[in-house]
Structures are given as C-alpha cells and as structure tokens.
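hey can u check if this looks right to u? its 123 residues, i copy pasted from the old doc so theres a chance i mangled smth
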Amino acid sequence: MDREEFEKVAQEVFDSLPSPFRDAIDNVHIVVEDRTSRAVDAKIGYRPGTLLLGLYEGIPLTKRGASYGMYAVVPDKITLYRENIRAVAPADEEMRGVIRDTLIHEIGHYFGMNERQIRAAGY
C-alpha cells in the first residue's frame, strides 16, 4: 500500500468512528511517517526488536485543566508509522485492520486511557 492509499485508509477509519467519539476529538493532527526517528525512539525508550506502530503526543482530555484553550495550544498529534505497520501486516487488507486498531489505540490515549485500559478494550 503506497502512502496516498495509507493516508486515505487512515482518514476512512477516522470518518467511520461513531459520531460521539469523532465529534469529541478536537485540535488533533493525524500524520503518517514512514518510520520512527531517533528522537522518537529515545523519547519512548525504544527497545531493539519492537516496532512502534503509532504514537500519541499531547495533553489527554483527562489531564487538561480549566485554563486549557485560554492560550494558544499546539495541536495534539497522532502519528502512524507506515513502514512499521507494513512490517506486521504486509497484505493490504491486513494493513487496513492494523491501521484501524493503531489509530483507535492512539485515540484512546487522547481520551486519557492508559496502555492497560486500551489493551483491555481490544486495541
């Protein structure tokens, strides 16, 4: 799957979210990168043999104080790592499922869920 198709699938996944969830997501930029950078690897404590499929960066809804939004706020960011997703799901149909699960997983972080909670929910 080329980058353009990958981005299209990610948008389709986002658009298919139930409206109460989709409408609650605000000021989040979803981007596609081919793979993680050394800076990201250092930030997350990369361990050899692991593949980071996605990353949420920002202030989760549950951590925002009363003053959030009263000043200029940089958008939160969800990054999907295309080559890493391709490594675990080489067929296009498999990739669609992994893109979906990864995006929903990262959106879970946006809503304030931790890894345990997200994994318990199946993502």
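The chain is about 50% helix and 15% strand.
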